[in-house]
From TrEMBL:
Species the sequence originates in: Macrobrachium nipponense (Oriental river shrimp)
Xref: InterPro entries: AB_hydrolase_fold (IPR029058)
PANTHER family with a match to the protein in the record: LYSOSOMAL ACID LIPASE-RELATED (PTHR11005)
Protein name as it appears in the record: LIPA
Length: 169
C-alpha cells in the first residue's frame, strides 16, 4: 500500500498550484524533461503518480544506493538473521537468471549509470542484447511518456520479442 504521506507530498494539487512547479517537483529525481512529454498528458501523469511503487520499494532503492550493492531488502541486523540467516542482506545473483534478457537503457537516466549497465551486462549469462537509446537526452520516465518513445524504444522491444519468438520456434 502506498504511504499516505508520500501521496500528500506528491499530489500536485496539494504540493503546488503551478503545473511547471509540479513537474519539477515530481521529476527532480528521474531527470524528466517536460518538453519531451506529450503536454496534454502531463496533468494526467501528475494526478496519477506515484503509481506502482510503495514506500518500502523507495527505501529498498535508497538502500542499494547507500550500500553500493544490488541486494535484497535490509531489515536490520536482527530481522536479517531471521529472514536471511545472516546479519546483512544477500546480494541478488543475476548469474542464476536462466531466461534470455535484452536491456534497454539511456545515458540520461538518472536512476542508473552506464557503469552499472556494463557491470550488469557482464553478469547476465543469457544476455541477448543491450540497447542504448540513441537520443542523448532520453531519461528514465521518457521510456513511458516521451513523444518519441515508440520509434526509439517500443519498436525495438517488439523486434526483441519477435527475435525471441523466432528463436524458440
Amino acid at each position: 500500500m502506498t504511504n499516505p504521506l508520500l501521496i500528500s507530498l506528491w499530489d500536485p494539487y496539494k504540493a503546488c498550484s503551478n503545473q511547471a512547479l509540479c513537474e519539477n517537483l515530481q521529476f527532480l529525481i528521474t531527470g524528466f524533461d517536460p518538453s519531451r512529454a506529450d503536454q496534454t498528458m502531463v496533468p494526467i501523469i501528475l494526478t496519477h503518480n506515484p503509481a506502482g511503487s510503495s514506500t518500502q520499494t523507495l527505501f529498498h532503492f535508497a538502500q542499494g544506493i547507500s550500500s553500493g550493492r544490488f541486494q535484497q531488502f535490509d531489515h536490520g541486523r536482527l530481522e536479517n538473521m531471521k529472514v536471511y540467516g545472516q546479519p546483512t542482506p544477500p546480494e541478488y545473483d543475476v548469474a542464476k537468471i536462466k531466461i534470455p534478457i535484452t536491456l534497454f537503457w539511456a545515458n540520461n537516466d538518472w536512476l542508473t549509470s552506464q557503469k552499472d549497465i556494463l557491470h550488469l551486462e557482464n553478469q547476465l549469462p543469457h544476455l541477448k542484447g543491450s540497447y542504448k537509446v540513441s537520443n542523448p537526452i532520453f531519461s528514465h520516465l521518457d521510456f513511458l511518456w516521451a513523444t518519441d518513445a515508440k520509434p526509439l524504444v517500443y519498436e525495438k522491444i517488439f523486434d526483441a520479442l519477435k527475435d525471441f519468438v523466432d528463436d524458440s520456434v
